[in-house]
Design goal:
α2 packs across α3. By secondary structure, the chain is of the alpha/beta class. It is built from 18 helices and 21 strands.
C-alpha cells in the first residue's frame, strides 16, 4: 500500500524542481489560475521520474487496475515518458495515440499491437477539465479498445473527474490540488494565504467539458472559452477532428480568411485559388454554378489545396431529409463527399440530416476527414433565422453528432460558446455597406472583434479586385491583427495546461 510519507516526499520534490509554481497564469481552458503545473520538467530529473513511475505502478496495483491483458496509453505528450517507464516496470504492453493522424503509410492514429475488445488504461499528468483524456478515450474507442479508467498524477479538482465519469471513465488521482497545497503549507513552502486563495479558486472555477464553468452552483458561459482563447488552445478542446485540424492550420498559417470562389468557370477558380492560396484557410465553392465542372477540376483544386495548405468547403447548404442528402452528398455529377473537406448544412430538417450525411461516409473517406458547418444565422436582410431557430441549431451542434459538426455559420458573438466550435461569418468587406440584393457587409475588425467571427468569408471584395493576391493579403493581415487584438497579448504569451 502506497504510504502517505512517500506521497509527501514526492510532492515536495515536484515543488523543488519547479514542476508547479504560483502566480497568475492563463490556462488553455481560457481562465486565469493562481497555480500552474508543468510536469514536463521531470524529464530533466531522472530520479524524480523514476520515483513517480514506481509510485504510479504501486498506485495502479492498489486500485486493482493491473488486470491481465490491459494496455497502457499515455496522453500525448507529457505523460508519454512516464507511461513508458510504467510499461517497462510492470511488463505491460503500451500503445501510443497520435495527436494527429498520419497522412502517409498506414495512416494510423493508435500505434501498437492490439485487438478490438482489448482493455486500455490511460496515464495522464495533470487534469483540469479532462478534455485531453476524453480526446484520447475517443480515439482509442474508435479503434475498438475498451477504456474505463485513467490514472492521473494531479487532479486540479475543477471538474475533470465528473466530466470523464459522464463519459464512462473513472479517474484515479495520485495527488489532488488540495492535498498538494496542504503538504506545501506543512513544509513551509507556501503561506496560508496562498492555500486559501487556491481553495477559493477551485470552488469558483468548476469547468465543464463544453468550456463553461460552475460558480456557486450556477453554470456560467465563459466568454474566455472562445473569443479570448487562442486557436492553438481551442484545438485541444475540439470534439470534431476536422475542426481540430482547421484550428491548427489557422494558427500555423496565421490566417482566418475564407475565399468565396463564386465563379462559373473552372479555370478561373483554379487560377484564383493558386493566386490567393497562400493567404487563406478555406476555399468556399458553389459547385453547381460551375458550368464546366469535371473530375479533373476537382483533382486540380485538391492539388492546390495541398500545395498552399487550405481546406475545401462546398457551400451546398443541404436542407432535405436524411436519405436525400446522403445521395446529394455522395452521388450525382458532383460527388461532393469525395473532395469537399467541409459542407454547409441547414438545421431545419433536424438531426436526421446529419445522420444522412454521415451515412454516406465510408472507409475511403473517413469521418475524421469530413465535417459540417451548421447554418444558424444568415447575413441577408429579412432572414427568417430567428433566435429560436438559432438556439435549436446550437443544441444540435453541442448535443448531437459533435464529432461531425466543425462549426456554426452565424453573425452573433454570443451564439457560439463552446471553444471547440468555429464561428464562420460571411459578409466581410474592407468597406461596410449593403449591396443591391440585401447582402450586409461589415469591416474585418467589426466582424472579428464585435461579431466574434473565427473564420471570415470574403467574396466580391477579392473577386472584383484587379490584384486578387495582394487584396487577399490585405484581408488576411487585417483579420489576423483583429484576432490577435481580440484574444489579447496576455493570451498570446500565456501558459498552457
Amino acid at each position: 500500500m502506497l504510504s502517505d510519507a512517500k506521497r509527501k516526499e514526492l510532492a515536495t520534490k515536484l515543488y523543488d524542481i519547479n514542476a508547479f509554481k504560483f502566480g497568475d497564469f492563463k490556462m488553455k481552458v481560457g481562465i486565469n489560475s493562481p497555480v500552474y503545473f508543468d510536469l514536463r520538467v521531470i524529464v530533466s530529473h531522472p530520479d524524480v521520474m523514476d520515483t513517480l513511475a514506481d509510485m504510479l505502478q504501486e498506485f495502479i496495483v492498489d486500485n486493482k487496475l493491473n488486470t491481465s491483458g490491459t494496455h497502457l496509453c499515455g496522453v500525448p505528450y507529457t505523460a508519454l515518458p512516464v507511461a513508458t517507464l510504467i510499461s517497462i516496470k510492470a511488463n505491460k504492453p503500451m500503445l501510443i495515440r497520435r495527436k494527429e493522424q498520419k497522412k502517409y503509410g498506414t495512416k494510423k492514429l493508435v500505434e501498437g499491437k492490439f485487438d478490438a475488445g482489448d482493455k486500455c488504461l490511460i496515464i495522464e499528468d495533470v487534469v483540469t477539465s479532462g478534455s485531453s483524456i476524453l480526446e484520447t478515450v475517443d480515439d482509442l474507442r474508435s479503434e475498438g479498445l475498451v477504456v474505463t479508467d485513467a490514472i492521473v498524477v494531479v487532479d486540479r479538482e475543477q471538474g475533470g473527474a465528473q466530466n470523464t465519469e459522464e463519459r464512462g471513465v473513472r479517474m484515479h488521482s495520485l495527488f489532488t490540488l488540495s492535498y498538494l497545497m496542504q503538504v506545501m503549507l506543512e513544509t513551509k513552502r507556501v503561506e496560508e494565504s496562498t492555500v486559501k486563495a487556491v481553495a477559493k479558486y477551485i470552488e469558483a472555477c468548476q469547468i465543464r467539458s463544453d468550456g463553461s464553468f460552475v460558480k456557486n452552483g450556477t453554470t456560467v458561459v465563459n466568454e474566455l472559452s472562445r473569443t479570448r482563447m487562442s486557436f492553438e488552445a481551442r484545438a485541444d478542446l475540439a470534439k470534431c477532428p476536422l475542426a481540430k485540424d482547421l484550428l491548427k492550420l489557422m494558427a500555423a498559417k496565421k490566417t482566418t480568411l475564407c475565399l468565396a470562389a463564386d465563379m462559373t468557370n473552372s479555370e478561373d477558380i483554379l487560377n484564383l485559388a493558386d493566386a490567393v492560396g497562400p493567404y487563406i484557410c478555406l476555399l468556399k465553392t458553389h459547385c453547381d454554378i460551375v458550368s464546366d465542372f469535371s473530375e479533373q477540376f476537382v483533382r486540380s483544386l485538391q492539388s492546390l489545396a495541398r500545395q498552399h495548405n487550405f481546406l475545401l468547403m462546398e457551400d451546398r447548404k443541404f436542407a432535405d431529409i436524411g436519405n436525400t442528402v446522403a445521395q446529394q452528398y455522395a452521388g450525382g455529377l458532383h460527388r461532393i463527399a469525395d473532395w469537399a473537406d467541409l459542407v454547409t448544412v441547414h438545421a431545419l430538417p433536424g438531426q436526421g440530416i446529419l445522420k444522412g450525411l454521415k451515412s454516406a461516409i465510408h472507409a475511403e473517406r473517413p469521418l475524421a476527414s469530413r465535417g459540417v458547418f451548421l447554418l444558424a444565422e444568415m447575413s441577408t436582410e429579412g432572414a427568417l433565422t430567428d433566435e429560436k431557430y438559432s438556439s435549436a441549431t446550437m443544441k444540435i451542434a453541442t448535443e448531437m453528432d459533435t464529432d461531425f459538426v466543425a462549426g456554426i455559420v452565424c453573425q452573433s458573438k454570443d451564439l457560439v460558446a463552446p471553444p471547440g466550435l468555429l464561428q464562420l461569418t460571411p459578409g466581410v468587406k474592407l468597406e461596410e455597406g449593403v449591396d443591391g440584393l440585401g447582402q450586409l457587409y461589415d469591416s474585418p475588425e467589426r466582424v472579428v472583434k464585435e461579431r466574434g467571427a473565427d473564420i471570415c468569408v470574403v467574396g466580391r471584395g477579392i473577386l472584383s479586385s484587379k490584384t486578387p493576391s495582394e487584396t487577399a493579403r490585405i484581408y488576411r493581415d487585417r483579420l489576423w491583427e483583429a484576432y490577435q487584438e481580440r484574444i489579447g497579448a496576455e493570451e498570446k504569451n500565456g501558459a498552457g495546461n
